[in-house]
Write a structure and sequence with these properties.
It is a single chain. The longest helix is centred in the C-terminal third of the chain and has 13 residues. The chain has a two-stranded antiparallel ribbon with strand order 1-2. The protein is rod-shaped. The protein has one domain: TSP-1 type 1 repeat (Single Sheet). It is built from one helix and two strands. A hairpin with an 8-residue loop joins strand 1 and strand 2. By secondary structure, it is α+β, with helices and mostly antiparallel strands. InterPro entries: TSP1_CCN, TSP1_rpt_sf. This is CCN TSP1 domain-containing protein. It comes from Acanthoscelides obtectus.
Length: about 70
């Protein structure tokens, strides 16, 4: 796990909750707003997430949805 950089002593840590994973199964992305950085400025952080593994059935359903859309 990455540790946040040293912040100015006047900085009040602030961050939002992580967003829901962008994928129902398999790898996706999640993001939040945070000032947990050396400049103490609000920025968007992004991380990889995985809600569950995709089965072959999930993969077929996703492909059908993409073709219809």
């Amino acid at each position: 796990m990455r540790m946040p950089a040293e912040q100015p002593s006047s900085c009040q840590p602030s961050f939002s909750r992580w967003s829901i994973c962008s994928s129902d199964c398999g790898a996706g992305l999640s993001s939040r707003r945070s000032n947990l950085n050396a400049r103490c400025t609000t920025d968007t952080e992004t991380r990889l997430c995985q809600t569950k593994r995709c089965s072959d059935k999930d993969h077929v359903v996703m492909n059908v949805r993409l073709r219809i859309a």
